[in-house]
Amino acid sequence: MYKFEKSFYSKTSMYSFVAVMILFFSMWFSTSNFVHIDMALLGYAISSAVFAIGLTIRMSFWMWRKATNRVAKRSIGNLFTKERMKRNGKALVRTLIDNIILQKFIFKRGLYRGIQHLMISWGCIISFGITFGLTFGWMRFDLIDSETYQIIVFDMPTITMAADGIFAEIVYNGLNIGAIMVLIGTGMALYRRITDYDVKVTQRFEFDILPLIILLAVTVTGLFLTIMYTFLGGWMHHYMSLIHQVTVIIMLMYFPFGKLFHVPIRPLATAVPMSYQEVIKVDTKSCKSCGQPYSNDDQIADVQAILKSQNFDLQLADGTYLSDYCTGCRRRMRAMKQMNLESPQGNPYGPVNTNNGIHLSGFSKKRSEEFYGLDQDAKEEKIDEPISR
Amino acid sequence: MNKIMYLEFERCIGCRACQAACRECGDHDAKERNFVEYVDFTESRQTFPMLCMQCKDPACARVCPANAIQITEEGVVLSAMEEKCIGCRNCTFGCPFGIPKFDFETNKMYKCDMCYDRTRNDIAPMCASVCPSDAIRFIDFEEMQQLRRKRTQMNLVEGKKPQEGNKWDYVPEFFGVYTDSQS
């Protein structure tokens, strides 16, 4: 394995090579030695391969980050621990249903945003599924007899359907349904991005609006294709299919490098119920100072390891780290340090000494003698002097 | 932007006007992102305001597994990007000052962004614009330097000279976002 890795320029290029090889052989296998390949989709196939390379590179670099690496490693380690099976299963199912399929947390941010995101995401998932399925030949339709189609997935015959049945209509129009969903979603998102002042505070055109425009271009050109062959008798269909192909390729090239990259990193959200906070809002580790629970041991260990690996020195004199204290105590420690209110014993969470002799806490307080810098010798002299003077 | 946030904890009177103002700021979604807390309620009534330091190399961004915390070109550390944030709360534990807050309902982290839409245009952030006792100020870098010098001079007038070992005891807190360029 080590030698195999050495034959590549870098690990990332090895992963990219493996990804492309998997795609190539899956294509070979599912089109039964390229017999059933759809030549009209060759452009899509090549751009999808480049897309796979881009995605692999981005994922590798993302995983290389200290924080991501640490969290992912712990999650993968926990995934194969026998004692955690029940918890893992629960976490995976909950994240899949709540977070990815239903996207409940976005609906809590607002119904409008929820519908908008659900439309875009599911429209994209449907469209991507069908497009990749057809371009790589993972899925194809075979005519069994004059009235029955069979869906063949990975060269294995699956369900049959009547060629003019309702189910068949839905399957044929899968891309149209997806496109209409994305059209509604991107329309809603664009409207929100343009009119909502709150969103405008941090939004950037190239990051937040450009992906919407690209998605919109793909869906509109795709829907125009349908309109052209159903209502206009194929007028300008050839040119439009080229334009559509160009927009799709732009989107595929943009995907790993722009905002859309949030899709492949979302599954990491499983790490939270799986390795960190099992039940929402229930903490198990208590603060070193006030004793209130604020986190759990595994997470604090990870945070400290990540910070240490990046040369953040947040260790206090007594050996504890700042992350051993709850957020409230950390704020208090900072304020006390700045106001010189720390107790003279140097115990940052002991009783407060409100008079440090420099900054006075109240108008009636007197500063300590030593503040005025009278040196000890002068004082002693005074004491020794006769009272009459 | 060459202005900075200037905090003087001792001036805080605990009115919490800054928090009320923070809730009104654009994109803050009616939730305050700053803190006003007692130093030690049993000892004195001294409160202090607490804002994000807008670190140059923020620990919160370094511990984020999703790479969701971004820094603007002006140097403002923004809240986690909503689409990337996976809701692990590493940032709240990594931050040495305990600044980021987390909303479990909507699964997103939010923190002081210095009212980015205001400070970007050299307008004082909401908290600084309402503070009645000037505990939070949004001032020029030069003005801050003057205030610091004055503070040291006041101590000198009273006969105390900062020594090498304790000179920081005399400096009030200052922090903020300032770039080297004059733009």
Automatic annotation (TrEMBL), chain A:
It comes from the Bacteria. SUPFAM superfamilies: Respiratory nitrate reductase 1 gamma chain. Keywords: Membrane, Transmembrane, Transmembrane helix. The chain crosses the membrane at residues 12-29, 41-64, 118-139, 170-191, 212-232, 238-257. This is MFS transporter. It comes from Mesobacillus subterraneus.
TrEMBL record, chain B:
Pfam families: Fer4_11 (PF13247), Fer4_2 (PF12797). The keyword GTP-binding does not apply. Residues 3-33, 43-74, 76-105 form the 4Fe-4S ferredoxin-type domain. GO terms for molecular function: 4 iron, 4 sulfur cluster binding; metal ion binding. It comes from the Bacteria. The keyword Electron transport applies. InterPro entries: 4Fe4S_Fe-S-bd (IPR017896), 4Fe4S_Fe_S_CS (IPR017900), ET_IronSulfur_Cluster-Binding (IPR050954). Keywords: 4Fe-4S, Electron transport, Iron, Iron-sulfur, Metal-binding, Repeat, Transport. This is 4Fe-4S ferredoxin.
